[in-house]
């Protein structure tokens, strides 16, 4: 490990500008690959669940999805 640190120090340029963020990475594509964050999924599920114009089965499914997301958080906190 120490040799890797020495190598990185020897091969670094303190005058080099900091690396720029990549402009070729589209956030939309990254979201498609990784999926939406749980917080966004919760908002969407809750919006469907409280929308009285939606079908009852859709609302129940949305509540089930919301419950699943809550359980994941609860399980993560208990471990």
Automatic annotation (TrEMBL):
This is Nucleotide exchange factor Fes1. Residues 1-25 are annotated as: Disordered. It comes from the Eukaryota. Belongs to the FES1 family. InterPro entries: ARM-like, Nucleotide_exch_fac_Fes1. Pfam families: Fes1. Residues 1-77 form the Nucleotide exchange factor Fes1 domain.
